[in-house]
From TrEMBL:
Name recorded for this polypeptide: Pyrroloquinoline-quinone synthase
EC number: 1.3.3.11
Keywords from the named record: Oxidoreductase, PQQ biosynthesis
InterPro entries for this protein: Haem_Oase-like_multi-hlx, PqqC, PqqC-like, Thiaminase-2/PQQC
Family per record: Belongs to the PqqC family.
Class of this enzyme: oxidoreductase
Primary gene name: pqqC
Domain of life: Bacteria
GO molecular function (one): pyrroloquinoline-quinone synthase activity
Pfam families linked: TENA_THI-4 (PF03070)
Organism of provenance: Roseibium aestuarii
Database matches in Gene3D superfamilies: Heme oxygenase-like (1.20.910.10)
Reaction catalysed by this enzyme: 6-(2-amino-2-carboxyethyl)-7,8-dioxo-1,2,3,4,7,8-hexahydroquinoline-2,4-dicarboxylate + 3 O2 = pyrroloquinoline quinone + 2 H2O2 + 2 H2O + H(+)
Residue ranges annotated for the Thiaminase-2/PQQC domain, each copy included: 23-231
């Protein structure tokens, strides 16, 4: 089905497009990456877990910026009203939940024993992490608004990833507590809300075979970017364990 869409052979119904997006996206989602498999199996060292949290901070910190860029591209107040919730979820707000996702991610990083300033400085993140995060900003600014919105559809699958990860982490790493993982709790309702909104827009806007192909490509590009971040982590911290100069060196790293 995906190949047919890519070839722009015929216009799919919205339901068929949704099914194609779900199938193509899930097949390439980072849930299947060996680094996540190690994490869920309880086989990561503390240092590897720290490297994951430190690098993923770069992604988390970029999310509200990329959502602000998407917001700025739309002429539709209704769209912007809905989309801005994403920014608030991550940045928090003065008169509501001050602890947005970014703060909660820092709590997770500190819970793993990382220094907050080292994490927020981002200098010790892997070069590839920074490139991948930059690629996300490029994706949402250089393509169409349809591409930008479709690229967020990995959130269709993140509740599955979180649903596997949280119980596995709690069961298999004695230094991880529910408090440390509090980042993930609100994501379980925020992500489906956001994904349903984005999916409704994408299936409405993609009304030609070309636009349907564009939506699928955007989702796959996003999957690739998430995958590339884990490839870089795996290469640096698992096998062969080659940490780039200047990047975070866990205390328990062999060599
Ligand atoms: O834990 C995960 O596996 C995971 C995945 C993703 C994703 O698929 O992009 C996001 C998140 N978490 C997440 O917490 C989050 O806030 C988020 C925002 C976005 C986005 O693209 O706008 N993806 C994700």
């Amino acid at each position: 089905m995906v190949e047919a869409i890519r070839a722009g052979q015929r216009l799919l119904t919205p339901t068929e497009l949704e099914q194609a997006l779900r199938e193509a996206g899930f097949a390439r989602y980072h849930i299947h990456h060996p680094f996540h498999r190690l994490m869920n199996a309880g086989d990561l060292t503390l240092g590897q877990m720290q490297a994951w949290a430190l690098n993923r901070y770069c992604y988390q910190a970029t999310i509200p910026k990329k959502d602000a860029l998407i917001l700025a591209r739309s002429e539709d107040p209704e769209f912007r009203r809905e989309w801005r919730k994403r920014i608030i979820d991550h940045d928090g707000e003065e008169n509501g939940e001050k602890d947005g996702g970014i703060r909660r991610w820092l709590k997770l990083a500190e819970g793993l024993g990382l220094d907050r300033d080292m994490v927020t400085a981002r200098r010790k993140a892997l070069p590839a992490t920074r490139y991948a995060v930059g690629a996300y900003l490029d994706l949402v600014t250089q393509g169409s608004l349809l591409t930008a919105v479709a690229s967020s559809l990995t959130e269709l699958f993140s509740p599955v990833a979180i649903g596997e990860r949280v119980p596995a982490m709690l069961a298999r790493y004695d230094y991880i507590t529910e408090e440390t993982l509090s980042y993930f709790t609100p994501r379980l309702h925020q992500a489906p809300r956001d994904a349903e909104h984005a999916l409704a827009l994408v299936t409405r806007w993609a009304d030609t075979p070309e636009k349907q192909a564009e939506a699928v490509e955007a989702l796959l590009a996003k999957c690739d970017l998430l995958w590339a971040m884990l490839d870089a982590l795996h290469h640096a911290y698992v096998s062969p364990g080659q940490i780039p100069p200047g990047a975070f060196r866990p205390k328990d790293h062999r060599t």
